[in-house]
UniProtKB/TrEMBL annotation:
One of its GO terms (cellular component) is cytosol. Activator of cell division through the inhibition of FtsZ GTPase activity, therefore promoting FtsZ assembly into bundles of protofilaments necessary for the formation of the division Z ring. It is recruited early at mid-cell but it is not essential for cell division. InterPro entries: Bac_CellDiv_Activator (IPR053712), Cell_div_ZapA-like (IPR007838), Cell_div_ZapA-like_sf (IPR036192). The keyword Ion transport does not apply. Its main location: cytoplasm. Residues 66-100 form a coiled coil. Gene3D superfamilies: 6.10.250.790. It is found in: Cytoplasm. This is Cell division protein ZapA. Homodimer. Interacts with FtsZ. Keywords: Cell cycle, Cell division, Coiled coil, Cytoplasm, Septation. Pfam families: ZapA (PF05164). It comes from Holtiella tumoricola. GO terms for biological process: division septum assembly; FtsZ-dependent cytokinesis; septin ring assembly.
Length: 111
């Protein structure tokens, strides 16, 4: 697979990146990180944090969000499995009731 090269701006600095993803995807990822760095910058009006510290804080915040989303995804997946199992049980119950209803109709006709 060809490596895509793209220049991005993160925290006011230009970085030359390359990866297997499309240039648009790489730009989007860099844009998300740039926004996180900007958020950190806004929270540091006295400019006490270095550029590297801002980037590190942004990366930590993103890692935190990632782990929380991963936990949510696992929980949602478990809930989905539970719902699917309940739906299957309900469908089986509907089938049983339908068969019973048909059996009762046949018995009623015979009388």
């Amino acid at each position: 697979m060809t490596k895509n090269k793209v220049e991005v701006i993160i925290g006011g600095q230009v970085f030359a990146l390359q990866g297997n993803e499309s240039q648009e995807h790489i730009q989007k990822v860099a844009s998300v990180l740039d926004q996180k760095v900007l958020e950190i910058h806004k929270q540091d009006p006295m400019h006490k944090l270095s550029s590297a510290q801002k980037h590190m804080m942004a990366a930590l915040n993103m890692a935190d969000e990632y782990l929380k989303m991963k936990t949510d995804l696992e929980r949602f997946s478990q809930e989905l499995e539970k719902c699917n199992a309940e739906n299957l049980a309900l469908l089986e119950r509907i089938e049983e009731m339908s068969l019973e209803m048909n059996r009762l109709k046949i018995m009623k006709r015979r009388k």
